[in-house]
Amino acid sequence: MQKTKLILIMAWVSVMLAACGGNPPPLTPTISVADVQTMAVSTFAFSLTQTAQALPTNTPTEIPVPTNTVVVFNTFAPFGTNAGTTVAGLSSPTASCYGLLFINDISIPDDTQMLPGQQFTKTWLVQNTGGCNWQPGFKWTLISGNPMGGSTVTLSQVVTPGTQFQISVPMIAPNTTGEAVGTWKMSDANGTFFGQSVWVKVMVGNGATDTPGIPSATATPTP
Questions:
Q1: Alpha carbons 93 and 133: distance in angstroms, whole number
Q2: What kind and span of H or E run contains 139?
Q3: Is the pTM value of this prediction over 0.90?
Q4: Is the pLDDT of residue 83 over 50?
Q5: Cβ contacts of residue 80 below 8 Å, gap of 6+?
Q6: Longest distance between any two alpha carbons in the chain, whole Å
Q7: What are the two backbone dihedrals, phi and then psi, of residue 41, each rounded to the nearest 5 degrees?
Q8: 97-210, what's its fold?
């Protein structure tokens, strides 16, 4: 009996399947949003891999290393040591080696009264306060004011450091009345002035008496 029922059920299923038109249609798979994003990322990564494989491989270029040039400097030994050769000092004197200090007026002190055109000799006492000798050829020269007929005096002898020295210049008082001043200074053979500036100052006017100067044999006036 059961066997007969089973045969009937199978027959009925076959009839129903035939009535529905044969094979059922294929099912369409359902794709989620996460699946779409995963597929997009995979596709982009794959394209990057393909591009990287297509590009040429970079070959590192060697950068030449510059060769250092050794610069040799002269090495000087400290003064007072036995190592090496000591640098010698300059043999020729400089302007800073010379000095001159005014000591006194030997003749014609400031504001001495003079007649117009009166002749006199101005003598200064100065001292070599530098560390070098004054040499023949050094000059005592007017640098400003009224020369009063005075000319440049050229030294004819050596004046050692510390020595006091008289310099005399023959002059003539101006013909105009009033005060007359002339400023003088020493220079070396190169024309570089040094030491103090020294002046002569007289008052020219009526009633003045002649005041003879005291000549000096230690300086020779230039003609």
A1: 9
A2: strand 139-145
A3: no
A4: no
A5: 86
A6: 186
A7: -65, -40
A8: Immunoglobulin-like (2.60.40)
Beta strands 153-154 and 193-204: pairing type?
unpaired
- The pLDDT tens digits of the residues spanning 179-219 come to 999 999 999 999 999 999 999 999 999 655 444 443 333 33
CA atoms of 190 and 53, how far apart (whole Å) = 85
Task: Please state whether beta strands 112-114 and 193-204 pair in parallel, antiparallel, or not at all (unpaired).
Answer: parallel
Query: pLDDT at position 139, please?
Result: 98
- Asked if residues 152 and 142 have their Cβ atoms less than 8 Å apart, the reply is yes
Residues 89 and 132: their CA atoms lie apart, in Å, by 15
For residues 184 and 139, give the distance between their C-alpha atoms in angstroms, rounded to a whole number: 10
Find out whether 97 and 131 touch, Cβ atoms under 8 Å: yes
Tokens 């129903």 belong to which residue?
16
Question: Helix (H, G, I), strand (E, B), or coil: what is residue 12?
Answer: helix
Q: Are 201 and 180 in contact, with CB atoms under 8 Å apart? A: yes
Burial letters 62-74, b for 16+ CB under 10 A, else e = eeeeeeeeeeeee
Q: Would you place residue 96 in the very low, low, confident or very high pLDDT band (cuts 50, 70, 90)?
A: confident
Q: What is the pLDDT of residues 142-187, one digit of tens each?
A: 999 999 999 999 999 999 999 999 999 999 999 999 999 999 999 9
Contacts by 217-220 with C-beta closer than 8 Å and gap 24+?
218/157, 218/165, 218/166, 218/167, 218/168, 219/140, 219/153, 219/155, 219/156, 219/165, 219/166, 219/167, 219/168, 220/153, 220/154, 220/155, 220/156
Q: How far apart, in whole angstroms, are the C-alpha atoms of residue 37 and residue 170?
A: 119
- For strands 164-172 and 119-128, give the pairing: antiparallel
